[in-house]
């Protein structure tokens, strides 16, 4: 199967000179985690939830509102792209090697689509292999009482997009880049001298997603794929006898195609 068979052709784009808050609204409205960036109609970069969280949480933008920052302040201009006639395996390998979740698709120098981990995972809908074969048992977790600045640093340092929130070994929530982006965006709508202090004191339990989807260790890859696609999530805590046993992500599942 080729990239063109699974890619999304209707690409959401934004000009680099638009407000960063506009990019956040586009992601929210379309339930996507990245927007392709253009300069006078030409492809020039990409901005993701991770990029926005990193930018809004930095000391440099401490007193700056998202409505005054431009997309160019958070976007990545170094792009890794795919060709529409490339094999899906090639796209999965590129994503895995570069630790990214999407590839703009180029044909004759023009943007013709975007292929994401979500698009590629559809190939695994019928896979009956046990999820335990790709399960990551070394899971980085946080407590509801941890500060989100600590959680954000864990995500950035370990290049992960979500953290399981636990209490006494049981999963009580998930904290994702989307949760952090929304929280930081809300706090930064009004700039005042106490804003940074309030952000620093915000707790994981205040912003985490509480309705967490989980899987048992004997679930299949098809089960994991279905839950991820139906709920637009990138990672699922895996439990055994009610306790956290590991985590499976879209990136883990991609490795089955390489």
What does this structure look like?
By secondary structure, the protein is an alpha/beta fold. It has two domains: 3-122, CBS-domain (Roll); 131-176 and 204-257, CBS-domain. 34% of the residues lie in helices and 24% in strands. It is built from eleven helices and twelve strands. The chain has helices at 3-6, 20-30, 49-56, 88-98, 117-121, 148-158, 177-187, 195-201, 204-207, 221-231, 250-254; strands at residues 13-15, 34-39, 42-48, 82-83, 102-107, 110-116, 141-142, 162-167, 170-176, 215-216, 235-240, 243-249. The protein has a three-stranded mixed β-sheet. Strands 4-5-6 form a three-stranded mixed β-sheet. Strands 7-8-9 form a three-stranded mixed β-sheet. Helix 3 packs across helix 7 (177-187). It is flat and about 55 Å long. The protein starts with a helix and ends with a helix. The mean pLDDT is 89.
CATH class of the largest domain reads: Alpha Beta
Q: Which strand order do you get reading across the main beta sheet?
A: 1-2-3
Number of helices: 11
Return the CATH architecture of the largest domain.
Answer: Roll
CATH third-tier fold name of the largest domain: CBS-domain
CATH homologous superfamily heading of the largest domain? CBS-domain
Order of helices and strands: HEHEEHEHEEHEHEEHHHEHEEH
Distance between the termini: 13 Å
Give the number of domains. Answer: 2
Tell me, briefly, the overall form.
flat
Number of strands: 12
Residue stretches low in confidence (pLDDT < 50, at least 5 long) are: none
Mean pLDDT: 89
- Strand percentage, roughly? 15-25%
Rg value: 19 Å
> Based on helices, strands and strand pairing, what is the structural class?
alpha/beta
Helix content: 25-40%
For the sheet with most strands, the description reads: 3 strands, mixed
